[in-house]
Every structure is written in structure tokens, then in C-alpha cells.
Amino acid sequence: MTLFDVYPLNNIAITKASGSYVWDENGVQYLDMYGGHAVISIGHTHPHWVDRIENQLEKIAFYSNSVIIPIQKELATKLGRLSGKESYQLFLCNSGAEANENALKLASFHNGRKKIVAFSKAFHGRTSLAVAVTDNPSIIAPVNETDNVAFLPFNDEAALKDHFAKHGNEISSVIIEGIQGVGGINIANDSFLQLIRELCNEYGAVFIADSVQCGYGRSGKFFSHDHAGVDADIYTMAKGMGNGFPVAGILIAPSIQSKHGMLGTTFGGNQLACAAALAVLEVIEEEKLINNAKENGEYLMDQLRSIEGLQNIRGRGLMIGFDVPPELKDLKKKLLFDFKIFTGEAKPNVIRLLPSLALTRRQIDDFIDSLEEAIEEIRDESLTQNA
Ligand SMILES: Cc1ncc(COP(=O)(O)O)c(C=O)c1O
Questions:
Q1: Can you give the residue range of the structural domain that contains 319?
Q2: For 323-360, what is each residue's pLDDT tens digit?
Q3: I want to staple 358 with a disulfide (CB 3.0 to 4.6 A). Which of 18, 39, 43, 252 is the partner?
Q4: Is 350 within a domain?
């Protein structure tokens, strides 16, 4: 049997990982500035995370949501305290798309409406409704097409006001990433998020904060939407929540009432996933990783700004992007193959940095040195070619 070939792969097999480093099958070490796509929050194979999972595995890995699972309550309590959303309710599932799917569906159950507002360059996942609110026609199959979604320009307050004025009473929910990830590290303006809050209040729509990539401390606050000082009605979470163990969830405001059978999942909230998620929160708290993300993120952005050629450096905490001019188009590849550094990208010309929240100053300095050298080499190579 062959693998279904949907991923453009780098020809590297990673077989070991620790903290902010990974190693390939030949023992070559790489600095991970990509965090396996923003997933590695507390660092690869953190010893506390490994212990917690191993201990849980010896007790019980899984039983279905037909019985009380005390570790779910433990997780909810800890998550409420660390996120500052103690009055919210937690529903657990398995992936980011599933979290968004449940959030959009719950909003529709709550207000009985069908219409959704999403934004240009949004990415919310690949399942039916999540992909329908994703601004990328090439991944929307005919069966996922729907008239229920309106895409408005990101950060355009006039367009949002106008849309609500015309259709406000039909809108079920507004879904927005606090910082667009796949779209290229675009920060939602504070005033834009505040306007969404006001309009949702006025028209009875549900404000969904997709925090799958930008949440869980990555931006230097627990949720990136917190920078705007607003509370969403539903927060969706995944990537950093399990540090690589598949676990996701939604936080639901107290105004939204549950009903038996409304949402459900077989695997969501299993004991092993909850142990992994608790370990992540314990390390985030113990090692003050949200503050680390904030301070080291600012330091990293300052260093990037001193490098000639990189454009439009932007981000919050350890969710950072910059544009690469055409003459440096091979920078990402060069960093990976010649300098052994993983970075992320966004089409057409953005490099995304999504490292572990435990990234150190020394690792940042190493990265910056390599980045400068890589740029110099590309420039030298192009001079030689043109000579
Ligand atoms: C903002 C955002 N939402 C949702 C998703 C989908 O998450 P998953 O791949 O876990 O389904 C992603 C994945 O990249 C994402 O970045």
C-alpha cells in the first residue's frame, strides 16, 4: 500500500526531538523555529509531559463519554484559571477543524440562524463547515459549497458595519483568528475585534475566536483576542493544547446553554488526552511560558528588524512573520538544508516563525546569526552567477 500523496514533503525523516531541537535519522540536529506548525508549545518531549502521559497510560488511556471522567474536570478548572475564562464551559474534541465545526454548529443551535461571517485569507480547517469558512476555493469541494458564508475584507470596519446593517438579524456567527496564521501572520486590529463584539451584542450573533494557532499563550497572552480587551462567546483551541498529543476543545460563554446530545464525540476528552493537556498547562504555568513568549518574541522581532532585506516584520509573542523579497526567495530552503533550521511559510513570500514558547535567547541569537549568514550567501551566490 502507498500513502495518499497530499503533502509536498521535505526529504527529511525526523526521529528524535527535545525542547526546540529535532534530529533526523542520520543524527543531524535542526533548530525548530516552526514548532511542527505551531503545535509544540512547551518544547518537544518535555519530561513532565512524558511522565504525565506515561503515568496515565498505566492507569487508563480511554473510556467513552458515557461515564464521569474526573480528569476532564481537573483540566477545565486549570484551563479556566490560566485563561482567565473561569465562568466558561469546556467541550473537548480532537482537532482544530473539529473545534471550529463544533463552534459554528453550536452558534447555530444557540440562535437558530444560518449565516456566518468570515474574512479574507482566513483558514479554519478542512472539514465541511470549517472549510466553508476558509478563504481558499482550491480546498473547498463542491459538496462543501454553501451560500451561508459571507467573506468580508479583514480589518475593514466599514464593510463589517455595512454587512451587519443589511443582514444582521440573519447572522448566526462571526469567526475570526486573532492573528491569521496560514493567511500570513496578519493581526486583527483591536478596534476591529471590538467592533465585532459590539455588533454581535447588538444583533444577537455569536463571536467565535479561532485560537487554534494564535491561542494558548503563543501571542504573549493566553488568547490573542485578549490583546483587544474583548471576550468572545466561543474560543476554539487545538495545536498548542497538547504539545503534539491530539487534543482540542472549545470554551463556551455561560450565556450559551448545553443540552444533552447537542454535541458529542467518541475520542474527545479521553483520559490520555486530558493528561497531556494538563501537563502542558502545568508547564506553561510553572515555567512562565506566556511571559517568555511575550519577552522573547519582542526580542526576536527587534533582532529581525536589524536585518537588511527582510520586509514588514510583524507578529505578537512567538507568532511572527516577515516578507521575503524576490532576490531571497530561496531563503527558507537554504535555512533548512544548509543551516539546519525549520521555519514555516505562507504563500506567496512569507516566512512564519512559530517556535516553542520555551525558546531561549541563545537559540534566538543562533537563529539570527544563521539568518544573516544565509542571506549573505544567497547574495554572494547571485553575484557570482551574474558575474
Ligand atoms: C487558525 C486555524 N484554525 C483551524 C485549523 C485546523 O486545525 P487542524 O489541522 O487541527 O484541523 C488550523 C490549522 O492550521 C488553523 O491554523
A1: 288-386
A2: 999 999 999 999 999 999 999 999 899 999 999 999 99
A3: 43
A4: yes
Same domain assignment for residues 281 and 296: no
211 CA: nearest ligand 1 atom? 1
pLDDT digits (tens, 9 = 90+) for 42-80: 999 999 999 999 999 999 999 999 999 999 999 999 999
Distance 337 CA to ligand 1 centre (A): 27
**Is the same domain home to 95 and 235?**
yes
* Residues 147 and 175 placed together within one structural domain of the fold: yes
* Boundary residue ending a domain (252, 267, 286): 286
- Looking at the chain, which runs of residues are DSSP E strands? 14-18, 21-24, 29-32, 89-93, 115-119, 149-152, 171-177, 179-180, 186-187, 206-210, 234-237, 248-252, 311-316, 319-323, 341-342, 344-346, 350-353
pLDDT of residue 383: 85
Please indicate, yes or no, whether the overall pTM of this predicted structure exceeds 0.90: yes
What is the percent of the chain with per-residue pLDDT over 70, rounded to a whole number? 100
CA atoms of 179 and 384, how far apart (whole Å)? 40
Kindly state whether residues 300 and 262 are assigned to the same domain. no
**Buried b / exposed e along 14-48 (16+ C-beta atoms within 10 A):** eeebebbbbeeeeeeebbbbbbbebbbbbbbebee
C-alpha to C-alpha distance for 73 and 68, rounded to whole angstroms: 9
Pocket residue to mutate for ligand 1, from 92, 102, 212, most atoms within 8 A of Cβ: 212
For the segment 251-262, the average pLDDT, to the nearest whole number, is 98
